[in-house]
C-alpha cells in the first residue's frame, strides 16, 4: 500500500512553501518520523517527517518547487508493499507534460514551451516579476531558475520546465502577472537540448557557493541578493554544501566586516549636482508593501492610544545583582529583566482583564490565561515568539523560555505556531537605546508594553535629589475596549510591582 506525504499546515496566514532539501532519494528505506525533506516559507523552516516506515517512492515536488498546504510531496511504499512501479520516479519530460504551468506547441525542428506563472497559493491571485536570471537567447538546463516572482507573502522562483533556449520574455521585470499567466517561451528539441552539454565553459551559468554544483535554497538566494552578499562569503550547511537561509543570517550576524557589494565597488560616473541624479528609486517588495498596509490597517482599525509612566529600577537591579549568580548556578540560565516585567504584567492583567482581551465582531473575548508575546529583533526583522501560559510560570521558567525563543528566533527556527496566539506583548526598545517610543498594537491584541533604556536621572526622593536608574514605560492600548482608567491602572500596577518586587510574592 502506498502512503502519501503531504505538506503540513504552515500557519494561519501562510499558504505555500518552497521545497528546500530532500534528505532521501527514491528507493531509499525510511523509518517512521524520519525526516524526509525541508520546506521553507518566508518566516520559518518546516521539516516533514515520514508518516510510515517503508521505501520512498515517487518524489512529486522537487527541490525548488513551490507547494501549497496539503499538496502531495511524495509517496511511500509501506514495508512489504514496495514495487518497481511505486519506487520508480517519473521522467522529467512526463512531469513537464503533467504540470499545468507549462504548455507546448511543436514545430518541424523543435518544440516551444510556454513558461507560465505557477500556482501562488489559495488566496494569492497575482505576483510581480522581480528578477529575470536569464536573457533571451540564453541556454538553460532543466529546472534551472529562470526568474523570481514576488507576492505579498512569499517569493516564488520559476524553474525551466525543460532544457532549451529562452526564446522570448513576455512579462518583464516589474510587471504584474496573474496566476496561470504567461511569462516566457522556451525552445526545446534534440539540438537545443544537447547545447548545454557541448557549450563552451564560458557559456555555462555560474555555479553557486564556492563552485559547488548545487542549487542554494531559494530564500537564501533572495536574502543574499537583498543584502548584497556574495555566496562565496557564506558557508553552506545544507546537503552537498547547499546554502540555507540560516547560513546567510549567520554570515550577516558575524562581526567581521563583509566586503562591499560588487555594484558598490564598481567605478561610478561623476554625480551631477542635481539632487534627482543622486537619488535611488527602488520599488518596494510585495512583502514590504504588505507590512506597510497591515501596520496602517492596525492604526485604522484600533482606536490606539498610548499612556506613559516611569519606573525606578533600583530595587529590581539590586535584587538581580544579589541573586544572579545563585540563580544561574541553580537554574542554568541568567536572571534578566524580562522575567520581572513578564511577572509584573501578568499580575496587572489579572486586575485589568480588558487589556488581555480582544474584540471579535460585536463580542469582547476575555482570556483567562496569558500567552505573552516577547518581541525579538533578528537579522531578517522583528518577530514575536509567544510564551504560553506565562502567568503560571516561575522566574526561572520564564527566563529559560525567553532565552530559548530568542535563540530560535535569531537562528530562523521558529515555527508559525510559536508566533501565534499571543494575548499581550512586551517590546524592549531599550536594547537599541530607545529612550521613549509608542509601540504599535499587534492585532487582535488590545495592549502592548514598551520598555526603554535605563538611564540615571536626578529624582526627588523624600525631599532630596538622588540619582536613580529610571526607565520610561509606554502602554499602547485599544481604546475601544480599554478605558483610560484601566490603562493607567495597569501601568501603575506594573510600576508598583517593579519598584517593590516583594509585591509579586505577596500577590499585591
Automatic annotation (TrEMBL):
One cellular component (GO) term of this entry: oxoglutarate dehydrogenase complex
Ranges where the Peripheral subunit-binding (PSBD) domain occurs: 215-252
Pinpoint the Lipoyl-binding domain residues: 2-77, 112-187
Q: What are the entry keywords? A: Acyltransferase, Lipoyl, Transferase, Tricarboxylic acid cycle
Location of the region described as Disordered in the Swiss-Prot/TrEMBL record: 195-214, 255-277
UniProt GO BP: L-lysine catabolic process to acetyl-CoA via saccharopine; tricarboxylic acid cycle
**Catalyses which reaction(s):** N(6)-[(R)-dihydrolipoyl]-L-lysyl-[protein] + succinyl-CoA = N(6)-[(R)-S(8)-succinyldihydrolipoyl]-L-lysyl-[protein] + CoA
Keyword Acyltransferase attributed: yes
One Pfam entry name: Biotin_lipoyl
Stated family: Belongs to the 2-oxoacid dehydrogenase family.
Listed under subunit, the entry gives: Forms a 24-polypeptide structural core with octahedral symmetry. Part of the 2-oxoglutarate dehydrogenase (OGDH) complex composed of E1 (2-oxoglutarate dehydrogenase), E2 (dihydrolipoamide succinyltransferase) and E3 (dihydrolipoamide dehydrogenase); the complex contains multiple copies of the three enzymatic components (E1, E2 and E3).
- Role played: E2 component of the 2-oxoglutarate dehydrogenase (OGDH) complex which catalyzes the second step in the conversion of 2-oxoglutarate to succinyl-CoA and CO(2).
Show the NCBIfam families listed in the entry: PRK05704.1, sucB
Q: This protein is called what?
A: Dihydrolipoyllysine-residue succinyltransferase component of 2-oxoglutarate dehydrogenase complex
Q: Which organism is it from?
A: Celeribacter indicus
Amino acid at each position: 500500500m502506498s502512503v502519501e506525504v503531504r505538506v503540513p499546515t504552515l500557519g494561519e496566514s501562510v499558504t505555500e512553501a518552497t521545497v528546500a532539501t530532500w534528505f532521501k532519494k527514491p528507493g531509499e528505506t525510511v523509518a517512521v518520523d524520519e525526516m524526509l525533506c525541508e520546506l521553507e516559507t518566508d518566516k520559518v523552516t518546516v521539516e516533514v517527517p515520514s508518516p510510515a516506515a517503508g521505501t520512498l517512492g515517487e518524489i512529486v515536488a522537487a527541490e525548488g518547487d513551490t507547494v501549497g498546504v496539503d499538496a502531495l510531496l511524495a509517496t511511500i511504499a509501506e514495508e512489504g508493499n514496495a514495487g518497481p512501479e511505486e519506487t520508480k520516479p517519473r521522467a522529467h519530460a512526463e512531469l513537464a507534460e503533467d504540470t499545468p504551468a507549462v504548455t507546448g506547441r511543436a514545430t518541424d525542428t523543435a518544440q516551444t514551451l510556454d513558461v507560465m506563472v505557477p500556482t501562488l497559493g489559495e488566496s494569492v491571485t497575482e505576483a510581480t516579476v522581480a528578477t529575470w536570471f536569464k536573457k533571451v537567447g540564453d541556454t538553460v538546463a532543466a529546472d534551472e531558475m529562470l526568474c523570481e516572482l514576488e507576492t505579498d507573502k512569499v517569493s516564488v522562483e520559476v524553474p525551466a520546465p525543460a532544457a532549451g533556449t529562452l526564446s522570448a520574455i513576455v512579462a518583464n521585470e516589474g510587471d504584474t502577472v496573474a496566476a496561470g499567466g504567461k511569462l516566457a517561451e522556451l525552445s526545446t528539441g534534440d539540438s537545443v537540448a544537447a547545447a548545454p552539454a557541448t557549450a563552451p565553459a564560458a557559456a555555462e551559468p555560474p555555479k553557486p557557493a564556492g563552485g559547488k554544483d548545487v542549487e542554494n535554497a531559494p530564500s537564501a538566494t533572495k536574502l543574499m541578493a537583498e543584502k548584497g552578499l556574495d555566496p562565496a562569503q557564506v558557508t553552506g550547511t545544507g546537503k552537498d554544501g547547499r546554502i540555507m537561509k540560516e547560513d546567510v543570517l549567520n554570515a550577516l550576524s558575524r562581526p567581521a566586516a563583509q566586503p562591499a557589494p560588487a555594484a558598490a565597488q564598481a567605478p561610478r560616473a561623476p554625480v551631477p549636482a542635481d539632487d534627482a541624479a543622486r537619488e535611488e528609486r527602488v520599488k518596494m517588495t510585495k512583502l514590504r508593501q504588505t507590512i506597510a498596509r497591515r501596520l496602517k490597517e492596525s492604526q485604522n482599525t484600533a482606536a490606539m492610544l498610548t499612556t506613559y509612566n516611569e519606573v525606578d529600577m533600583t530595587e529590581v537591579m539590586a535584587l538581580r545583582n544579589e541573586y544572579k549568580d545563585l540563580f544561574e548556578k541553580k537554574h542554568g540560565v541568567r536572571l534578566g529583566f524580562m522575567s520581572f516585567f513578564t511577572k509584573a504584567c501578568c499580575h496587572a492583567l489579572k486586575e485589568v482583564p480588558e487589556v488581555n482581551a480582544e474584540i471579535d465582531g460585536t463580542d469582547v473575548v476575555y482570556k483567562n490565561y496569558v500567552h505573552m508575546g516577547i518581541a525579538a529583533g533578528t537579522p531578517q526583522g522583528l518577530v514575536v515568539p509567544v510564551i504560553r501560559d506565562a502567568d503560571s510560570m516561575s522566574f526561572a521558567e520564564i527566563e529559560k523560555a525567553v532565552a530559548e525563543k530568542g535563540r530560535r528566533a535569531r537562528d530562523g527556527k521558529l515555527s508559525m505556531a510559536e508566533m501565534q496566539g499571543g494575548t499581550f506583548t512586551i517590546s524592549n526598545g531599550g536594547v537599541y537605546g530607545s529612550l521613549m517610543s509608542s509601540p504599535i498594537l499587534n492585532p487582535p491584541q488590545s495592549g502592548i508594553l514598551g520598555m526603554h533604556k535605563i538611564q540615571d536621572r536626578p529624582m526627588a526622593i523624600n525631599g532630596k535629589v538622588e540619582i536613580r536608574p529610571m526607565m520610561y514605560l509606554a502602554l499602547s492600548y485599544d481604546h475601544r475596549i480599554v478605558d483610560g482608567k484601566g490603562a493607567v491602572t495597569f501601568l501603575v500596577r506594573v510600576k508598583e510591582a517593579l519598584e517593590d518586587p516583594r509585591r509579586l510574592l505577596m500577590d499585591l
